[in-house]
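STRUCTURE REQUEST FORM
Protein name: Neuromedin-U receptor 2
Source organism: Mizuhopecten yessoensis
Requested output: structure tokens
Priority: standard
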Amino acid sequence: MKHGRAIPFLELLFIHASILIMLGVSFGRYYAVCRPLQSYSTCGRSRTLVMMACMWGVAALFAIPMIVIAHVETATFHRDASIIQVCRAHIFLTWHYAYVICIFCVFFVIPFFVMLFIYSSIIRGVLKESAHIEENSNSKSFRRTSLRNQRQIVGMLFVIVVVFFLCTLPLRIVIFWFAFTDTKHIQNLGLEGYLNLVWCGRIFQYLNSAINPFIYSAFSSKFRWAFKYILGLKKKEEFSWSRTSQRTFASTHYSFMKQNKQREQKEQYM
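Status: completed
Returned output:
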């Protein structure tokens, strides 16, 4: 059990990193929908890798205090009364409580409101863009494809925010309750009740990340094509054709947004 304290550290590390990555993806969607011109010119692979490294660094930084809080101690196994070693995190110092409040705010409250603001802005941008397309596009097929994609984006973003809130909240409530409630209340749960409560919160937290591919699959035809190609259910030629069509639509979307931007700038100077 020399490295037992690494377990809560790694658990928090991956939970924090998954939330930060979701925030990064949210910002990427915001720039792609609301600021496509800036997205095409600034969002490159190298910048994405730097952002990913920073996210993991921040997640690790906020998880390090758990190494100090957690400790290995001896306990009695409830079935055969044998002596075992367990890793526990007792919250009793002032900075322990401050740390619990800090990670609750940084990795739940702030991300939730940031995602809510970002996706509200995206939905407003999508609705505004749909109105522009209806008024100015002469191609019926482009209008139909664009409007369908915009509706899919709105639906997917709404589901992602709801899933994030419902799946992340239980574990945060459990951690808060364990930190601030009286020890007698926790002891009254018994071992089985305690473990059921902890694992219920953990399962919901992990479900937040595990369910995202299913959400993308339900709303994104591009994701479904790529997933089927990985499984060998689609031929390379079909997958290449799908990617070409997606690039064609993206290029058309870029040109359309550029024309709108230029027109808006001209109207401002008139």
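Reviewer notes: Residues 241-269 form one domain. DSSP finds ten helices and two strands in the chain.
Form closed.
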